[in-house]
Write a structure and sequence with these properties.
The chain has 495 residues and is of the alpha/beta class. It is 30% helix and 17% strand. The protein folds into three domains: 17-85, Chitobiase, domain 2 (2-Layer Sandwich), CATH 3.30.379; 88-126 and 328-495, TIM Barrel, CATH 3.20.20; 133-152 and 164-176 and 193-327, Glycosidases (TIM Barrel, Alpha-Beta Barrel), CATH 3.20.20. The chain has 15 helices and 16 strands. Helix 2 (105-117) runs parallel beside helix 3 (175-187) and helix 5 packs parallel to helix 8. Bound molecules: zinc ion.
Amino acid sequence: MFSGVLLALALLPSPREFVPAAGHVREPSVSVTRDASLPPEGYSLEVTQSGVRIAAADDAGVFYARQTLEQLSGPQGVRCCRVRDWPEYPYRGVMIDDGRHFFGKAHILKTLEWMAKYKLNKFHWHLCEDQGWRIQIDGYPNLTTIGATRPRSPLPGRYTRAYDNRRYGPFFYTKDDIREVVARAEELHIEIIPDLEMPGHARSVIASYPELGCPTSPLDERTAWTDWGICDDVFCLGNEQVYRFWCDVIDEVCELFPSSRINMCGDECTTRNWSKCPKCRAKAEELGLEHISHLQGWMTNRIVAYLRSKGRYYMGYADGMGHGSSLGTGDVVAIAGSQTGGAEAAARGYKVVMAPVEYAYWDFNQGLAGDPYVYASWWSGSNPLGQVYSFQPRLGLSAGAAKNVIGGLAFNWSEYTATPAELEWKMWPRAIAFAQALWNPPSGYSYAERFLPALSGHLERLRAAGVNCATWAPESPRACTGGMSADNQVMKVAE
Ligand SMILES: [Zn+2]
């Protein structure tokens, strides 16, 4: 039986090829060479009595070999073995929503450290929401005074318009905070993709600069939004100032983030205000648009072009890409919240990052008895660990569409996640199962017989380092073996 005291960890994510050998070696010398025959991020690792030999295609491969080496190290030394390993998917991401609740620099840095240990390589930093703008923008100072504050928040757990009446904020990251986080992420071979939001999810911006909203739909109060859900306060696309605002913000964001892509999200934009707004209606007529909703596609295409002029590429949610836009497919990445939506986007030729609700929404509860962070919310269902582990981004796709799927992204939406401790509980160990699904998809790798026993040492390691991870054991009553669980449906709360 596995013992975290006497042995090194069982490797997670489990590598492609692992050949154990007898014995351990103490404080071995490490040699590193290049091997162009290995895939990107791939490595080989040989631990013998004469030392450790690492070969890798690139710097990331060397880095991942060292993460594996760390897991092979225990009190007896480094376990002798041979490993050859490479990822199935190049895009292995996790998002943290700092908009609804703010978690702070220390927590983001800690999360990055642990992501890297499990070979997750994309961090989506969700910095703008209706409920709070979280990034310093010098040209628009109101964003981080007015836009980063709300006078109250909904009471946790119920979608009832009941509030705590406590001021929340101003909470935001300074440019120095961002530079520090980006620099550390680079050392950890994690690319940080900033998540911005347009043309919907704009309430915190419109509170800061009311002229950017439709003049016929003034705010009920000039603060970031104090409810959860989909807000009708969207940008006025008949107002040219909105385009200038986004170009200015993108300029400052691009100075901070070296990522090749900027995620503009583009999801959940309602058109109620546009239909009533003379500026929006006049613009739609001038452009000869069939429907007022097509203003979104028109504006998105301008943002795509602006990003391209700066050498960056557009990324957005698949559900925002249908509104009268004909985005070029070659350099646009769609994030899909459902497998059917992802299949459609992949068939249309977009590169797709899969983030299906039933695997990738970690605000959903984990189906654990005695879970301290279950809220009977209007929204969340249940995504147990075994279900996350069974995630297959290319499931059911034709070969042509499957090649457009570049990986997966998990969402830590934070309406009902208020503190770093809660966030960690919901993220770990699901992030390890997700990493396994994206690094080395577990066909034939049994969840109950191999993954859970391998996990136990990792849970000890996480807890010893002060990570508040959920309690899982092979005998967990609801540890499902894959596929969608019967209770994974949106729950309605009886009023
Ligand atoms: Zn308007």
